Amino acid sequence: MNLRAVTSIYQFEMARAGRTLLQSLVSPVLSTSLYFVVFGAAIGSRIQEVEGVSYGAFIVPGLIMLMLLTQSVSNASFGIFFPKFTGTIYEVMSAPISYLEIVLGYVGAAASKSIILGLIILGTSTFFVDLHIQHPFMMVLFLVLTAVTFSLLGFIIGIWADGFEKLQLVPLLVITPLTFLGGSFYSIDMLPPFWQAVTLANPVVYLVSGFRWSFFGISDVSVIASLLMVAVFLAVSLAVVSWIFRTGFRLRP
Amino acid sequence: MSQQTPAISPSSASQTAQGTEPSPVIAVSALAKRYDSGFEALKRIDLDIRRGEIFALLGPNGAGKTTLISIICGLVNATAGKVLVDGHDNVTDYRAARAKIGLVPQELTSDAFETVWNTVRFSRGLFGKRPDNSHIERVLKSLSLWEKRSNKLIQLSGGMKRRVLIAKALAHEPQILFLDEPTAGVDVELRRDMWEVVRELRASGVTIILTTHYIEEAEEMADRIGVINRGEIVLVKEKRELMRQLGRKQLTLHLQKPLASVPPALSHYPLTLAEDGSVLIYTYDAASEPATDSGEHVSISKLLNDIEDAGIRFKDLHTEQSSLEDIFVNLVRERQ
C-alpha cells in the first residue's frame, strides 16, 4: 500500500477546499441558516409539531442530508474531473499507485469534507433549535456511510463527465430533486397514500428517514431498511468504480 | 522494412559495439496499440533503451511517439506486447516499474493555484517517497526555480511552467526521464538552459528519452536516435553513425570564370554546375569515402588535383554535411 500517495492526494484535495473556504464552508452555512429562517421560523411557526418534534428541529436531519448528498457529489466529481480537464491527471496515472489508493485519496477527501460540513451545519442548527441526538453512534454511522457512498457516486460522475455540463447534469437533475422529494422537509405521512407509495421508490427517503431516526427515534421506514439501502448504494457504487478501473474507462485508454 | 531490419535491432547493434550486452533499462517487445476508433497507433514495436543514454525519438505528427511513451509510463493500456522497465513488467509489476520513471508531458498542464514548492512536494509523495526538502531544494535550484518556489503556477511563464513539470518529474529521483517535446514553445535561451539540465542529468546517471520536433535538439543532445513513422520504428542508430551513414556531403567550388559545361576530363565525377556555371558542386556520401589517417578524403584531394589539371581556377570552396533534419525528412519521405 502506497500510503504516502494516498496521503498526498488526500492533503492536496483538502488544501483545495482550504483555498476556496468561502465557497466550501461559508456558503453552505449561509444557505442552511436561510433554510432555518424560511422553513423553521417563517413557515415552521405555522406548522404543528411533527410526531412530537418541533418543525424546526424536524428538518435538521433532512437539511444535513441535503447538504451531505449534494456536497459529496459535487466535491468528489470536481476533485477527479478537474485534473482530467486540465490534464494533470497524467501524474496520478503514471505514479506507482493502485486504483484503490486513488479512490481512497480522492473519495476519502471528498467524504471528509462533507462530513465536516454536516457537523458544521449540525452546529449551526443548534443556534436555531434545541437538539438532542438519541442515537449518536448511528447518527455518525449514517453520516459517514452516506458521505462515502455519495462521494463514490460523485467520483463516478467526475470520471464519466467529459464536460462541465455533464458534471452538473446528475446533481441538478437527479440528486437535488430526489433529495427535496425525499422527505427532507416533511414526513411522508403528510402525503396522500398514492404519493406515499411513489415516494418509497425514492432511495433518498430511506437515507433521510434513517438519519432522522438517529436524532429523534422517529422514522418513515424501518431503520433496517434504511441501512440496507445505504449498503445497496455503496455496493453499486463500488461495483461501478471497480468496473471503471478494470476497463480503464475514460482514465486509461 | 525488411532491408532495414538489421539496423533497427538495437540489441544487435549494442552487442557488436560492446561485446557483452548490459541489460537494457527499458525493453519494449512486440508492443501494439489499436485505439477503439480502429486507429493503429503502434504496430508491434521492438525497442531497447540503454542504461544512461540520451535517446531521441523522432517522428512526424501522429507517428506514435506519444502513444509509445504513454504506454511505457502507464497512461495508456497496450493492446499487445510487453514493456520491461529495469526488468519489471510495467503491467504486472507496475509499482516497481513506474517508481523508476519520471515523465514530463508534452502539454503544459499544471494546478494553477498551487505553489511551485507544494506541487513538486506533492509529486514526490505521489510516488511514495518520504518527504525530503533538501532534495526538492536541489531540484528547484538546478532548474533555476528556487526564487519562484512560493509563486503560484498561474503566475509563471510558459518556460517556467515547463521547468516546474521537469521538477515534478525529478521529485522522486527517477532513473529514467521521459521528456515529451520538452522545448516546444520555449525560447532559444531557455532551450539551451534545458539542454544543459538534461546533460547534467545524464551525467548523474539518469537515462533520458526525449521526443522532439526540433531535429537540432536531437542532433545536439542524443547518443542514439530512433525514428518512428506510422506506428513503426523505422530506424535506431547511434547518432554519429547515422549522420555518417546517411549524411550527404557537398563540396562547393566558386569558380573564377564561369564554365559552359563540365570538362570531359572530369566527367567521371558526379559534378554539377550551378549559378550560370560559376559554381561547381560535388556531392558524395561521407561514409563511402575512404579517408586517410588525417581524416581527409582521398578522392577529394584527387578531385581538386584533377580540377587544377583541367585548368579550372576557383576563388573559394566550402563543404557542408546534411543535417539530421535532411536525413529525417528523406527517411520519412522514402517510406510514404
From TrEMBL, chain A:
Its main location: membrane. It comes from the Bacteria. The chain crosses the membrane at residues 21-43, 55-82, 140-161, 167-187, 194-215, 221-245. The keyword Ribosomal protein does not apply. InterPro entries: ABC-2_transport_permease (IPR052522), ABC2_TM (IPR013525), ABC2_TM_bact-type (IPR047817), ABC_2_transport (IPR000412). It is a multi-pass membrane protein. It is found in: Cell inner membrane; Membrane. Keywords: Cell membrane, Membrane, Transmembrane, Transmembrane helix, Transport. Belongs to the ABC-2 integral membrane protein family. Residues 19-248 form the ABC transmembrane type-2 domain. This is Transport permease protein. The keyword Transmembrane helix applies. It holds the Pfam family ABC2_membrane.
From TrEMBL, chain B:
Residues 1-21 are annotated as: Disordered. It comes from the Bacteria. It holds the Pfam family ABC_tran. InterPro entries: AAA+_ATPase, ABC_transporter-like_ATP-bd, ABC_transporter-like_CS, ABC_transporter_ATP-binding, P-loop_NTPase. SMART domains: AAA. Transmembrane segments: none annotated. Keywords: ATP-binding, Nucleotide-binding, Transport. One of its GO terms (molecular function) is ATP binding. This is ABC transporter ATP-binding protein. It comes from Salinicola rhizosphaerae.
